[in-house]
């Protein structure tokens, strides 16, 4: 069953963004400049309100209303502008803190990766951007929504960010293409590489490689009789292990050093016993 055709514009763009089963097409504009400006306006307004409150506090210095809440509220009946000031402070403070809280969450959302953004722009522009015959799905000022790459965020980034997973997505994604459910829009030139399939492949590969580098190394070292050759093979297997950890995982440099040292220690202990045993009469 072919994918449903949605009217061009907001319907087709929304369907396109929701069509990715892994939800990696949910790319939106941050509006960082507008957010910063809104927060600056609220800051300035709160600063003015605070100055007015400080002035009222100076007027109340030594007065009972400076220490008694009931007396302070009674003064609101005489000076309603004070009640209005407190109300404005509370309203603006709540809005300011709410925006700060939201922005702290959005600031942690990563930007879309190069592969996902390229695919998204291909769908947004009905083809490669800035190519004859292509045009944005949205018109007016909305046609420039996705021009500033640094002002974009993705709500759900890809699951794994190790080098192998990134390589598979960028260059071998066609191997992991997943058929879309019925009713999803079918956009020419775009395929959907399944994140779950990539993660499963990397998991299997890393498990097999880890077993080979340990068991295989022990078998090879056991079969080799020359001590010098054994030491050389230990160095080779250690380099291969360090490369596999750096390629298949998100381990930091210190973690790579620690894992490599532990792996090398196992091999050294093994060949030490072999060399020591072979040198006995």
Automatic annotation (TrEMBL):
Annotated ranges, domain DUF6594: 10-268
Transmembrane spans: 201-222, 229-250, 256-276
Keyword Lipid metabolism tagged: no
Keywords: Membrane, Transmembrane, Transmembrane helix
InterPro entries, per database record: DUF6594 (IPR046529)
PANTHER family: DUF6594 DOMAIN-CONTAINING PROTEIN, DUF6594 DOMAIN-CONTAINING PROTEIN-RELATED
Protein name, per record: DUF6594 domain-containing protein
